[in-house]
């Protein structure tokens, strides 16, 4: 098997040792019947838009969170949401400290978790510099590839034995930045995350340079000690699919966001100092002319 190379995530500017968690409780009382039951503990990544992330108000948002809220309403479940670093979140689910985490289904993860029925089909793509086309894993040998540590792309590249130099980062939305600033040659991440990141952050100079990879089902991973929860999640999913809410949430959250007016914003910011300089120059000319008149 070829030797695998990986650098510590701290090399990307984010240390895995830094504790970072948010605990937000969502009191979902659909009919007043959700009285004293223990909440279903939902985990996720605070930087994974549009699926799950922290909003500007500090509350959990995203397509996955909205789906879980709808399921909870259908099944009269109370939920709490705890966000943290992705690899730590998966470990917490495996230890039983969390009950539900949305994720891709893989062979490795089937050995660690139970799963609800899938509610999405997603895939990964490779981003790089324009013209730097890659068609196979073998072509990544010796090249620096940014991936989220503990994510599906990370698992796949490690298990495949590719001789790529892995550049792990803690936030999937930051893997594209590694390419933009020259710290990686490529970034492998889910297509919808990449599309969302490019649009929202206005990143330029990178594009999809490879075929679809890792086309997989996306579902709710479940604490292996909570098999009874799978049936309730599946029932809730079936209900919101039948009543149209699931499709409505897909339309609400998963449509490509509008790209920011980046150049216009920069133009507006540059007009401010330019206007100040012009005003100062005019004031200087007026004062100079007055001085000349007084001298005469």
From TrEMBL:
The chain crosses the membrane at residues 266-287. It comes from the Bacteria. Residues 39-257 form the Solute-binding protein family 3/N-terminal domain. The keyword Membrane applies. InterPro entries: Solute-binding_3/MltF_N. The keyword Cytoplasm does not apply. Gene3D superfamilies: Periplasmic binding protein-like II. Keywords: Membrane, Signal, Transmembrane, Transmembrane helix. It holds the Pfam family SBP_bac_3. Belongs to the bacterial solute-binding protein 3 family. This is Solute-binding protein family 3/N-terminal domain-containing protein. It comes from Arenimonas caeni.
């Amino acid at each position: 098997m070829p030797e695998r190379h990986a650098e510590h995530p701290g090399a990307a500017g984010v240390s895995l040792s830094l504790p970072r968690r948010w605990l937000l409780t969502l009191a979902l009382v659909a009919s007043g019947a959700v009285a004293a039951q223990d909440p279903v503990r939902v985990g996720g990544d605070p930087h994974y838009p549009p699926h799950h992330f922290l909003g500007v108000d500090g509350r959990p948002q995203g397509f996955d969170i909205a789906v879980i809220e709808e399921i909870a309403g259908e099944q009269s479940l109370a939920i709490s949401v705890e966000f943290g670093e992705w690899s730590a979140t998966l470990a917490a689910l495996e230890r039983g400290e969390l009950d539900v985490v949305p994720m891709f289904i893989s062979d490795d993860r089937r050995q660690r978790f139970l799963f609800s029925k899938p509610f999405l089909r997603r895939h990964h793509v490779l981003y790089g510099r324009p013209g730097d086309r890659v068609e196979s894993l073998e072509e990544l040998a010796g090249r620096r590839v940014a991936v989220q540590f503990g994510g599906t792309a990370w698992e796949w590249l490690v298990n495949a034995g590719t001789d790529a130099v892995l550049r792990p980062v803690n936030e999937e939305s930051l893997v594209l930045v590694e390419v933009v600033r020259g710290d990686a040659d490529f970034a492998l991440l889910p297509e919808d995350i990449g599309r969302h990141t490019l649009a929202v952050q206005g990143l330029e100079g990178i594009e999809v340079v490879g075929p679809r990879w890792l086309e997989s089902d996306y579902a709710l991973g479940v604490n292996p000690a909570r098999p009874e929860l799978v049936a309730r999640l599946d029932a809730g999913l079936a209900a919101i699919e039948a009543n149209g809410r699931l499709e409505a949430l897909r339309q609400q959250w998963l449509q490509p966001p509008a790209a920011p007016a980046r150049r216009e914003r920069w133009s507006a910011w540059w007009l401010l100092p330019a206007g100040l300089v012009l005003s100062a120059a005019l004031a200087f000319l007026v004062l100079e002319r007055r001085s000349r008149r007084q001298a005469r």
